[in-house]
């Protein structure tokens, strides 16, 4: 079993730094951050320009992936990009194809001043509800950042409980499509969670996790009815509860 699957199956709440993220994904070599501006890869369609922090400020962004699926964890990422950094092709993860996200991922991991991921398991989602689990994941990821920042931009209408009293937070609905550091967090969280669901697909075949990533597609719902829930399904979600009898 890979590190990703172990996270999803047994650890209710895990927080990973850059090296741990890279190791969990089984990548060969951790990318080194480069000083100064760098051009990113071509990635997906070109959307509206994203707002970046001014040269005198450091902004952190936080976003989550996996609130809607019927199985697997919620994954949140918080990252701090260098002030003024523009990464060509960077957009909200939902606007990018999987290959585009994969091309951007090592660039973002290399260029970020700091990056953290929090993984909240399906067990904890069932215990707390997915809304609270998502807030917990974003809060833990942002609280784990070791680099000082001037502002935390949160994708959503809420502020987060942090271990940094007085930290400036800016809640913003749709921030992942408007603010570069939040878009970066959305891409990193999505790539990490997708890889995790690919591993779970190998352990629990028949549900199509590698394709649907746990979302309630017709094929996934049919497999649920035929097979019943897997050990990583969220029992508090209605379609899963119905399939479990």
Describe the 3D structure.
With 245 residues, this protein is α/β, with parallel strands linked by helices. It contains nine helices and six strands, in the order H-E-H-E-E-H-E-H-H-E-E-H-H-H-H. Strands 1-4-3-2-5-6 form a six-stranded mixed beta sheet, sandwiched between helices. A hairpin with an 8-residue loop joins strand 2 and strand 3. The longest helix is centred in the last third of the chain and has 24 residues. The radius of gyration is 18 Å and the shape is globular.
Quick synopsis:
The chain is built from 9 helices and 6 strands, in the order αβαββαβααββαααα. Strands 1-4-3-2-5-6 form a 6-stranded mixed sheet, with helices on both faces. The two termini are 29 Å apart.
Q: What is the molecular shape?
A: globular
Q: What average pLDDT do the residues reach? A: 89
SS class: alpha/beta
User: What is the topology, as strand order, of the major beta sheet?
Assistant: 1-4-3-2-5-6
Total strands:
6
């Amino acid at each position: 079993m890979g590190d990703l699957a172990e996270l999803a199956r047994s650890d209710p709440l895990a927080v990973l730094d850059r090296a741990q993220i890279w190791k969990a994904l089984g990548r060969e070599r951790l990318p080194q951050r480069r000083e100064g501006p760098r051009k990113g890869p071509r990635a997906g369609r070109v959307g509206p320009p994203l707002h970046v922090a001014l040269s005198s400020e450091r902004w952190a962004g936080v976003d989550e992936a996996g609130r809607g699926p019927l199985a697997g964890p919620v994954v949140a990422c918080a990252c701090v990009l260098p002030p003024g950094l523009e990464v060509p092709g960077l957009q909200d993860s939902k606007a990018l194809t999987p290959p585009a996200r994969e091309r951007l991922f090592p660039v973002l991991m290399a260029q970020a001043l700091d990056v953290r991921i929090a993984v909240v398991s399906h067990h904890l989602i069932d215990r707390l509800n997915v809304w609270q689990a998502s807030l917990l994941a974003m809060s833990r990821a942002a609280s784990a950042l070791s680099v000082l920042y001037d502002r935390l931009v949160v994708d959503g209408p809420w502020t987060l409980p942090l271990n940094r009293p007085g930290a400036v937070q800016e809640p913003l609905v749709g921030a992942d499509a408007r603010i570069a550091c939040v878009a970066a967090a959305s891409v990193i969280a999505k790539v990490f969670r997708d890889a995790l669901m690919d591993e779970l697909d190998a352990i629990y075949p028949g549900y199509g996790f590698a394709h649907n990533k746990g979302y309630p597609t017709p094929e996934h719902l049919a497999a649920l009815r035929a097979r019943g829930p897997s050990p990583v399904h969220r029992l508090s979600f209605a379609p899963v509860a119905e399939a479990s009898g």
